[in-house]
Amino acid sequence: MRMPLPVLLIAFLGFIFQGFFIVSSNFGNPVLTACLKTVASIIFVTVGFLGCRRLKKSVSGNAETECGISESCGNLICAGLFFGMLGDIFLTLRFVLTGISQVVFFIGILCFLSGHIFYLIASVPKCPHKILALLSALLISLVIVLIYVRILSVTMLFKIAGIIYVCVIAFLTSTAFINAFVSPRPQSLVFALGSLFFSVSDILLMLTAFGSVQNPIFSAITLILYYFGQMLIAFSINVSVPRLS
User: Fold this and answer.
1) CA distance 154 to 236
2) What angle do CA 155, 157, 160 make, to 5 degrees?
3) Which of 58, 47, 194, 44 is nearest to 123 (CA)?
4) Confidence of residue 126 (pLDDT cuts 50, 70, 90)
């Protein structure tokens, strides 16, 4: 397995734009920040799309590659990346559209939730221990919710949405790691690591969005983890393509 050089270069460019976005979010104007974030997000979607194109050339129908991913699974992951991009755009637009910032933020969260659901549809059918993944997710979610309801001040609507969101990301991460443990192939390992980074960044985001944590370094760490997570998920499609494709 190998990552094509053009894909790596595009990914590197994405991290550069993500870095500019992080700096701009602390020192720049909201419009420039939104533009930089949009470009960075388009890039991880592009990486996933290129992986899907390569995957389509190497498999037919739902036949899996030697790394255990089908074309339909790659398309689902790519769809998840697309909705992640939309979530990025709306979350940064809340600083531009300040009059309706809560509505824009909520739409962004719904986009991220939709992206996670696509990731779940791609990973859950392959999980041989779905009950274990669900129980693990419920336990993780319970701990997180019990902690966060004490330290975050949000409306009931956001509490309900937050609980649902935490359950979904916990289920995704649990499923991904069970798949990686049972079948430690490049695709499953990279996807599991990406899911973990994404989930951790989401949990930390709640502290910066609704809590008292407003430290720029903490925010930067959250954003870096998020971008690594999305890029690794995009990479998981690319590493699934056979070397000779």
Assistant:
1) 35
2) 110
3) 194
4) confident
Supply the DSSP symbol for 244.
Answer: T
| Average pLDDT rounded to a whole number, residues 38-49 | 96
Q: By the 8 A CB rule, do 127 and 178 touch?
A: yes
- Alpha helix positions (H), 28-155: 30-58, 71-93, 101-123, 130-151
> Is the pLDDT at 16 greater than 60, yes or no?
yes
Angle at CA 30, nearest 5°, toward 117 and 219? 60
- Three-class secondary structure of residue 211 per DSSP: coil
d(CA 35, CA 22): 12
Name the DSSP class of 126.
G
pTM of the model: 0.89
For all residues of the chain together, what is the average pLDDT?
A: 86
Tell me which DSSP letter residue 2 carries: -
